[in-house]
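Appendix C reproduces, verbatim, an entry submitted by the partner laboratory led by Prof. M.T., so that reviewers can inspect both the input and the predicted structure.
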Amino acid sequence: MAKKEEALSFESICDDIKAGKFHPVYMLMGEEPFFIDRITDLLIETVLEESERDFNQTILYGADTDVAAIYNAARRFPMMAERQLVVVREAQLLRDIETLANYVKNPLMSTVLVVNYKYKTLDGRKSLATASGKAGVLFDSKKIPDSRMPAFITSFLKSRAIAIDDKGVQMLADFLGNDLSRLCRELDKLAILLPEDSPKRITADMIEQNVGISKEYNSFELVKAIAVKDVLKANRIIQYFAKNPKDNPMPATLPVLFNYFSNLLICHYSSDRSENGLMNTLGLRFSIQVKDYILGLRNYSAMKVFNIIGDIRTADARSKGVEKGTLTDADIMKELLYRILH
């Protein structure tokens, strides 16, 4: 079972494609479009030489085609090439997609069929999903939890031979969340600014100057200030947020606070409160991520944390109009911060 999961990972699929190991069917489904698009783009770049694409590459769209057209396209033989490529984008808009199983059960080995089924998944009990897994690749592209974004950013940059400091990682994770498409655009922008010679390293200063995240006034620094109960610094950050609401919207700040205190509550009931124990409990990879939880354990009792989580939920409801009255988002954040720190 473990071997099968490894074979279906994003990294292993990409490695096989780069090595020229192609499958006749790639059924790419799931909530996260980033990985689906990456695999599809890599197949388009790799399966055919540029000179072969005019006659052997077909791109269809779910809203403008049907299963019969896909079947006919996939059943054609390549012209003056070893294989052909058929890509179906927006396949979630297809009617009766399950009938595509008739082809997938017996695919043409000279065709590479790529089906993009975004934002939803096939029913694993039905024949199309089962046949796709047997004939080729059935990949479920899942959203990355916010808590794992720092590790993803580090790994993604490492694959491009680029390092990043711990503070920079957390700044990007807090500011961009798990919006991978936006994250990739920002990382591409930063990568262009790096010198050609090694070593290449992205710093917090670079992020502040080029992404628009303040090195001193961001959600990462807010959590640090709250963890040590630095009332002055926490209030300065909230005031900065109020003056720059476009770059620091309340809907982006509240999930960061909620995530911190939810994890802090887990830490309170963890049997091993050592640094390594808490890192394992929370699934963290970097020691910088756990320091705020160790400090929080000293400064906030379990009952206080429980109440704070309730306060954050109340603030979220108010920001959406529930008993908001004349309060602004800035007013709600100031009141929430007071309740957290006192």
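The chain has 18 helices and seven strands. Additional entries are available on request from the coordinating office.
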